[in-house]
Amino acid sequence: MKKERSICILLLLFAWTFGAFAQESRKIEYESDRTIKNEEKYPGAFILSKVQNQVHFTHEGIEVWCDQAIHYAEENFFKAYGNVRMEQGDTITMSSRYAEYNGTTQFAFASGNVHMRNPQSSLRTDTLFFDRTKQQAYYRSGGTVQDTASVLKSRIGRYFLEEEKYSFSSEVVLTNPEYVLKSSQLDFYSDTGHAYMYGPSTITSDASVIYAERGFYDTRGDNGYFVKNSRIDYDNRILEGDSLYFNRSRNFASATNNIKVTDTINKSIIRGHYAEVFRDKDSVFITRKAVAVALQEKDSVYIHSDTLMVTGKPENRVIRGFYDVRMFKSNMSGKSDSIHVRQSTGLTQMLGNPVIWSGENQLTGDTIHLLNNPETEKLDSLKVFDNAFMIQQDSIGGFNQIKGKEMYGLFEDNELYEVNLIKNTETLYYMRNDPGELIGINKTLSSSIKVLLEDRKVQDIFYLKQVDGTLYPEEDLPPNARQLKGFIWRGDEKLNRMEDLFAGEEPYEPLKIKGIPLPVDEEDFFEERDEDDLLLNERSRLRPEDLKERATDTITPVATDSLRGILQTRDTISPAGDTIPQEFRELRDTLQNVPVQDTLQGTRREERQQKERQ
Question: Which residues does the annotated region (Disordered) include (predicted)?
């Protein structure tokens, strides 16, 4: 029992001794060439001044140098004047014209040409608050951060030392030799150069303008990732999507989910769910439900395929579609394995098993060309090469058929009105009288054929040269003889509306996009504190109302030219100016009126060492 009681007493003594030592270790230590006491003006304070060496304070890992200081030892507080330099370890250095430090709360304030530096960046501002307990600095009077690659400016900013993060708000501008970034809110990590944008933001360069309401940008690697209403504007092209990736050095951008690429010169739009843009090559690659829309005044043309590519300068754009191409406009639709559209000439080439439907007419062949007038944006003509076939379903279920080696069609007001077939032409046609009664089935051979249409229906057929035809009664022509060689009916594939562009395809499941988290909701820099635990010392030039979050600062910085020189050594103190604060004039007068021989030589550190020796 006695042994246990002895252990408890030892522990209590140790705790009391350690607490007393810890309390003593929190006291600010200093070194000064001159130490003056003036109880009348500065009760309870020492006035410290430089002669050859600057005044030097140390306190729990922080060191401060200045030309003059007012030190309240009992209150563990000092004010520093002139060429102030503050260092915390080997990571943070801060210089200013004025600073004050509360050793009890480890809270510092600096003003007048404040310059804070770390190994990767530096901050300049008029006034700065520094909470060593939180390891955070804060300004609201406008600040400039110089990074290895960029310069950042904002009206309000906060620096988190442990994370090496600047958090800017209100009028943020990041300037790089290649671009200017503006944002309503931005987090910047000085060790990596990474910037996170929150709220409306733009990145403007000679070649592009990026807009996003949430995004990430690597200022040193010159690449970024953007989400939420993001878009990239080039000279003649706009890229939009749920998420965008951008690489400036490669002049490359990609987009994912709900993509829209707008050609502002050629009035065309491409949509899909994945796109790549190569600016130097002036090319766009897009897939996943890709569809191109050629905007025309009265009737736009839609082209859908597995993959679409757009290449070439604006005056010579080329659209290419690959794999299961589908085309639709109000009076025409078509399909092919691939498609090639040259916008400058208006030529559209449908390659690989192509088919076109115009009204009730089906046109097929090995290759189909459509020629559009670039100026009027109207269809002009079509050409079908090799195995040209035109089929129209008859009312009783049979098929009117016209075939030849090649076919040429003419359009008027985007309507097919004439078709000409040449070389080894054949027809199989259901002949009817005016009431619509079937007369017979006509099979004819000729060297060429002209077909006239009205309202997309065959009105007349003209056989030219070497005509050889027979009109068969319906019962005399067996069903297996009612189709010309090479006949293929694809009416069930016809696109009757725009939605048919995607008929038969599996629904697309958009990729899950890795978003950018919202900024951390940090507590206020000036958090509420108990009355007996205030950040400020009553001797501070700040008032409690100064320690409130607000949009602008009202604290007058000590960075005016009229103060230059008053905070130097006694022999170089300049005359007082009318704009010099009263406190500084009093300090100057005190230093001027006290002879050097009457000052108290030595340092607090020396006094402590003498006591220890005694």
Answer: 586-614
Q: Give the pLDDT confidence of 175-200 residue by residue, as tens digits.
A: 999 999 999 999 999 888 899 999 89
Q: How many CA atoms lie within 13 A of 455 on its CB side?
A: 0
Residue 427: strand, helix, or coil: strand
pLDDT score at 305? 93
How far, in Å, are 83, 140, 542, 555, 557 from residue 111 at the CA level? 11, 12, 11, 9, 5
CA 48 vs. chain centroid, Å, equals: 52
Q: How far apart are CA 556 and CA 563, in angstroms?
A: 13
Q: What is the C-alpha separation between 127 and 111, in angstroms, rounded?
A: 4
- Token pair belonging to 498: 């725009």
β-strand pairing of 34-37 with 46-49: antiparallel
Amino acid at 178: E
Here the tokens at position 299 are 């009737």
Find the mean pLDDT for residues 311-334: 88
Structure confidence at residue 16 (pLDDT): 38
Which of the four CATH numbers 2.60.450.10, 3.90.1150.10, 3.40.50.150, 3.60.21.10 does domain 354-493 have?
2.60.450.10
The CATH number for 2-134+525-613, chosen from 1.10.260.40, 1.10.287.370, 3.40.50.300, 2.60.450.10, is 2.60.450.10
Q: How far is CA 375 from CA 301, 314, 346, in A?
A: 16, 15, 9
The mean pLDDT of the chain is 82
